[in-house]
Specification:
The complex is a heterodimer of chains A (327) and B (267).
Chain A lengths: L5 E12 L2 E13 L4 E5 L6 H9 L6 E10 L2 E2 L5 H7 L4 E4 L13 H13 L3 H14 L5 H4 L9 H13 L5 E5 L7 H18 L2 E6 L2 H7 L2 E6 L2 E7 H6 L4 H8 L38 H5 L5 E4 L2 E3 L13
Parallel strand pairs in A: 3-8, 3-9, 6-7, 7-8
Antiparallel strand pairs in A: 1-2, 1-4, 4-5, 9-10, 10-12, 11-12
Helix pairs in contact in A: 3-4, 4-6, 6-7
Chain B lengths: L1 H16 L8 H5 L21 H36 L3 H15 L2 H15 L6 H28 L2 H8 L4 H37 L10 H10 L6 H28 L6
Classes of the chains: A alpha/beta (327), B mainly alpha (267).
């Protein structure tokens, strides 16, 4: 599709473990347009993170991309050499990880961690890099950047560490940023600040963002389009408004029903059961064992991703028959 | 720390602070041979006329040389092999680990005694202490290797390693700039304890008479004094005391370092 920055098509990433092949991502499709924020939603273990790691080609062993294509900025990512990938990572595509306390190396100062990348990708001199590091700290809203540059990660709070991780990911002004649950380990007030910051930076730098989360609140707040994943497959994809108001997949409905709301007094609905075993996923639709609308047809065949409305895709055989509740 | 500092100081300045040169039979001619501790000979004199005080000081130098040298060798081999074993997977790692385990089960002291005898006679005559350093290092690295490998496997899974990859760092850079430095603190602690262990081993070797009889070491001195322990106790007693304090010092330093380097105990 023209005008698309990142295009992931039918991606399958499997982990070849001794217990069997874990199908962590089993046919994912994600599109990201320039300057757009796309949400990637799903429970733990639904393949959101692995999809992002696959795009950067940093899947930990024994994981491997089996089939599919990843196109970034018109180029085939999977065909690139490791050397070319290294030049891409951090410079054009960057990632912010979940746990700020472990995503910084405890042995080096903030300045060193920031200027390292700048010297690597931008070939800046040590002095220029350190100046830009200071500027970046200021950009992510850290007070007294000059003194903080000399700090070690353990001297900083979780929120500050995550700001620094963001600064580091943005240091070379990438056109695409993967944010892997960047606020899960922060407390709520800091969470709001960090999200606000990311929104602002994304706007200022004009980059695209893939927001990986299981928090529907963040999705509503941050994203323009959403892809819902479950057990390594895409269940539904649409623009954020449509997902919330007019879901076409029972899993989306169940996710929305599990979100606490201030305007309604009701008991939260939980989705019964757990995410399936990814070595031997259930036949047919992977969600059928937990789906209250499941029928024989759901077990017989894997439902294809169908266009159910303009730019709205869902993988459910019964989408026409059932009426789902949004919010 | 103070104890270790004291021993290191003595070792460094041994040639200047010892009243008599190493293995000097001066006492034989002055008539002091076999005399008990006195102002002139604080630790007494051997029946052969050797001043025990000077000998203990020279021994400090030699024993620390063995302890530090062998530990350095152990750490060099151990870290290099451990890093390889931690980095590679599959056949290479299995092979390295297999070899490591073989070295782990070898009763090192027996082989050391054997090799010390054979090589001392055949090849390295006169090499003395350096030979012991080489043998100790060659048979001692496996523990460090296992430690380093285990730590590397742990650190490798930490999120910042993946973060570095996501930022475009290459394999070598990640390994040597990010993983290995994070592994070093337990290695430092273990090395300190190793130094004490090696000094003890050297004492055992010399005491059993497998060392170089022309080099002053604590073990040799204890060995010589052992013959006249009923009459001239000071010949064995003072070097023995030195061994006890030195080993104690290194062990305390090891404990201290382990506390200091443990981030959970750091304020």
């Amino acid at each position: 599709m023209p005008g698309t920055l990142l295009e992931i098509r039918d991606l399958k990433t499997y982990f070849f473990t001794e217990a069997g092949v874990v199908k962590a991502v089993d046919g994912a499709n994600v599109d990201v347009k320039p300057k757009e924020t796309v949400g990637l939603v799903g429970e733990s273990g639904s393949g959101k993170t692995v999809t992002a790691l696959s795009a950067l080609r940093i899947i930990p062993r024994p994981g491997k991309i089996v089939t599919g294509s990843v196109t970034f900025d018109g180029e085939d990512v999977l065909a690139k050499s490791e050397e070319q990938m290294r030049q891409l990572r951090g410079a054009k595509m960057a990632m912010v990880f979940q746990d700020p306390s472990s995503s910084l190396n405890p042995l080096y100062t903030v300045e060193k961690q920031l200027s390292d990348i700048l010297m690597l990708h931008r070939k800046l001199s040590k002095k220029e890099a350190s100046q830009r590091a200071e500027y970046l700290l200021d950009l992510v809203g850290i007070q007294a950047p000059k003194t903080r540059l000399k700090a070690y990660p353990h001297e900083l709070s979780g929120g500050m560490k995550q700001r620094i991780a963001i600064a580091r990911a943005l240091s070379c002004e990438p056109s695409l940023l993967f944010a892997d649950e960047p606020t899960t380990n922060l407390d709520v007030t800091v969470q709001a600040q960090v999200l606000e910051l990311m929104k602002k930076l994304q706007h200022d730098l004009g980059m695209s963002m893939v927001m990986i989360t299981h928090d529907m609140g963040i999705i509503a707040d941050m994203t323009e389009r959403v892809t819902i994943m479950y057990a390594g497959r895409v269940m539904e994809a649409a623009d954020t408004k449509t997902i919330f108001h007019d879901p076409k997949h029972p899993y989306t409905e169940a996710l929305l029903a599990a979100v606490p709301r201030v305007d309604q007094r009701k008991i939260l609905e939980v989705i019964p059961g757990n995410i399936p075993n990814l070595i031997e996923p259930p036949p047919g639709c992977v969600f059928h064992p937990r789906c209250k609308y499941a029928k024989q047809a759901c077990i017989d065949a894997v439902p294809p991703l169908e266009e159910v409305g303009k730019g709205h895709w869902a993988a459910c055989v019964r989408w026409k028959e059932i009426r789902l509740r949004g919010v | 720390m103070v104890i270790v500092g004291f021993f290191v100081f003595v070792a460094l300045t041994a040639p200047w602070i010892a009243p008599f040169p190493a293995r000097s039979y001066a006492g034989l001619y002055s008539g002091a041979a076999g005399s008990p501790p006195s102002w002139e000979h604080p630790f007494g004199v051997e029946p052969s006329g050797i001043d025990v005080f000077s000998e203990v000081i020279h021994g400090t130098r030699n024993d620390l040389y063995v302890g530090l040298g062998a530990t350095l060798l152990t750490v060099l081999i151990g870290v290099a092999v451990g890093a390889l074993a931690g980095y590679f997977r599959g056949l290479i790692a299995d092979t390295i680990l297999g070899i490591t385990q073989v070295f782990l089960v070898i009763p090192a002291l027996l082989l050391i005694l054997l090799f010390a005898r054979i090589f001392a006679v055949l090849v390295f005559a006169g090499l003395g202490l350096t030979l012991i350093v080489l043998i100790l290092g060659f048979f001692g690295w496996s523990g460090v290797t296992l430690l380093v490998r285990g730590e590397i496997l742990r650190v490798k899974e930490l999120e910042f390693v993946q973060a570095e990859r996501a930022l475009g760092a290459g394999t070598l850079r990640i390994m040597f700039r990010h993983i290995v430095p994070n592994v070093l603190s337990p290695v430092i602690v273990v090395s300190t304890l190793n130094i004490a262990g090696y000094i003890l081993t050297e004492v055992v070797i010399s005491f059993l008479g497998f060392g170089d009889p022309n080099t002053s070491t604590w073990g040799l001195l204890i060995n010589e004094g052992f013959t006249y322990i009923r009459t001239q106790w000071w010949v064995s007693f003072f070097p023995g005391l030195a061994v006890v304090f030195c080993v104690l010092g290194f062990n305390l330093m090891g404990d201290g370092l382990s506390d200091a380097l443990n981030p959970r105990l750091r304020e």
